Amino acid sequence: MIYLDNNATTAIALEVREAMRPFFDDNYFNPSSMYGVAKPVKHAVESARELIAGFLGASYASELLFTSCATESLNAAIFGAIRANPERRHLITTAVEHPAVLEVGKSLQREGFDVSFIGVDRQGNLNLGEFVRELRSDTLLVAVMHANNETGVVFPIERLSRVVKETDPSILFLCDATQSLTKLPIRLDGNFRNVDMLAFSGHKFHSPKGVGGLYLRRGTRCRTFLIGGHQESGRRGGTENVPYIVGMAKAIECAIETHNDDRKRMEYLRNKLETEIVQQIPNVEVNGVGAERMPNTLNIAVHYIEGEGILYQLSDLGICASSGSACTSGSLEPSHVLTAMGVPFTAKHGSVRFSLSRYTTENEIDFVIEKFPEIVARLRRLSPYWDQTTNKPRESQMPIQ
Ligand code: PLP
Asked: In terms of domains, do 110 and 211 share one?
């Protein structure tokens, strides 16, 4: 198997599995328990908090809350901010967010909140003029992703958060760093110093699914979202998922050691794949090309064929990738990200995302480079929009957009 769907989820690192094991076995105690044997369990959770908070450049370990996933962290941040600041009813986000923010925004809109969804250009870059114009005296919160899960396009969080704070320091800035954490530099005492809240998920960087984090800068007005026990200093009820928290910290520790090298290697392999595909196949383009992108992501638009067909054929060869559109999940709606970018109909439905990890090898990439052009040629032979004799698109058959 060749796994190139690491923006969906990643393999659990061996070191992470080993680090978690004792907390599934003998150290199963509740970290809140008073007896002696539970003390190392509590200590493991707090050490994990310190390690991750240090990696992020947080001033205090207590600014980091453990959650079950990025979706929970993002919901907790948005709804917690709304509850703490009921007088403000305007939110700003972008048209290309993950549903964990986008759908919350739409749902709030239905409840009567005013939500601005900032658009992007053809490369996927945020419309900065529109962003600045939308900042208002009643704006409560700005929620913007760092890197896009579909295209890998990176938004200029340092600049956006600075503009927000220069306009009105009381506007809260929430960043969804789910795709970028460990792949791009993030320092809450540096480039992210104007970010108030930051969300992430462990399974995107080689720890298990079911654990995430929410950074809440000290003093940020945000009410408890998950009300229950006194865990997480009373800010998130629920017994801590100790093995997974320990595993997530281990994954960060591994990333601290290797992330610079990993980044360079992934970028080299991604660029190789991209260059070869673009050179070998006519009528393909790279979604997000020209914008700053994550080093591991390639979203390739193959005009005149269905992405779903490409995925099936890749899958037959043991290659796991994903489609830019939601077609694979049973809906025929094309990707909201590619739609917002104005990707034409003939490419939007044929877009495929390859996402690499530190474990991706050059041999794997070479295999994809060998097979991908054959797959595209085979599917184009069946496409009503493709003329075999000229090896060019058949313009008269083009669908109306
Ligand atoms: N935000 C982004 C950018 C994502 O890519 C994802 C997951 O793919 C999420 C949020 C939600 O993460 P989770 O499913 O772990 O809650």
From this structure: yes
| Domain coverage including residue 20 | 13-255
| Ligand 1 site, residue 335, Cβ cutoff 6 A | no
Judge contact between 327 and 273, C-beta under 8 A. no
Give me ligand 1 centre to Cα 378, in Å. Answer: 34
Read off the pLDDT of residues 24-83 as tens digits, 9 standing for 90 and up.
Answer: 999 999 999 999 999 999 999 999 999 999 999 999 999 999 999 999 999 999 999 999
Crossing angle of the two packed helices 242-280 and 39-56, in degrees rounded to 10: 40
Contact 223, 236 (CB under 8 A): no
Nearest of 377, 382, 394, 322 to residue 354 by alpha carbon: 322
Is the Cβ–Cβ distance between 243 and 23 less than 8 Å?
Answer: yes
The set of catalytic residues is 327
DSSP string, 78-109: HHHHHHH-TT--EEEEETT--HHHHHHHHHHH
Whole-prediction pTM value?
A: 0.96
Other beta carbons within 10 Å of 21: 14
- To the nearest 10 degrees (0 to 180), the angle between helices 14-24 and 242-280 is 160
Q: State which ligand 1 atom lies nearest to the alpha carbon of 149.
A: 5
pLDDT digits (tens, 9 = 90+) for 300-320: 999 989 889 999 999 999 999
Q: Please say whether the beta carbons of 27 and 243 come within 8 A.
A: no
Last residue in a domain, options 255, 290, 315:
255
Judge if 89 and 223 occupy the same domain.
yes
298 Cα: distance to centroid of ligand 1 (angstroms): 18
Q: Are residues 249 and 290 in the same domain?
A: no
